[in-house]
Amino acid sequence: MYRIGDYDTNEKYFNQYLEMDINEYETVLCYASLSKIIQILLVHFSAWGHCYVALKQYEQGEKLMQEALQIRRKSLPGNHHDFALTYSSLGLLYKIIMKNELALEYFLKAREIHLASGEPDLLDLLITERGIRMLQASDYRVSSPSLK
């Protein structure tokens, strides 16, 4: 719904997720058979994170993207391609708010997962590589050999 600009309706449903009792939330994460619910939570956390970034509410966007990352850590293997998408999104956010070291860290994690997968999400890999190059072009100095 956020893609068509219906922020009020999307926020209503998102807030219902946030009001879940913490025990319900932990129970959901414990049962692999409930992966559909986890995926719905992830979509909402990620989508709202992107919405807040688009609205220049960066702290709220970061909070939701980090929450999506934590859910993924509990429910997916560490090399799952969804991590690359989340890391790339966080890299872009940190680049926007001038936290270049964090941006680079997340972009490099995203690239590592994409390249290890054998079948990377090409659009996200392109965005990730562009972010790394833009950090290089801005004379951002790091000791990482992958950027020299």
List the helices and strands and how they pair.
Blueprint: H1 7-18, H2 22-30, H3 35-54, H4 58-75, H5 81-96, H6 100-117, H7 122-137
Helix pairs in contact: 1-3, 3-4, 4-5, 5-6, 5-7, 6-7
Structure, briefly:
The protein is an all-alpha fold and 148 residues long. It has helices spanning 7-18, 22-30, 35-54, 58-75, 81-96, 100-117, 122-137.
Explained architecture:
- This protein has helices at 7-18, 22-30, 35-54, 58-75, 81-96, 100-117, 122-137.
- Helix 3 (35-54) packs antiparallel against helix 4, helix 4 runs antiparallel to helix 5 (81-96) and helix 6 (100-117) runs antiparallel to helix 7.
- It folds into 2 domains: 1-67, no CATH class; 77-148.
- With 148 residues, it is mainly α.
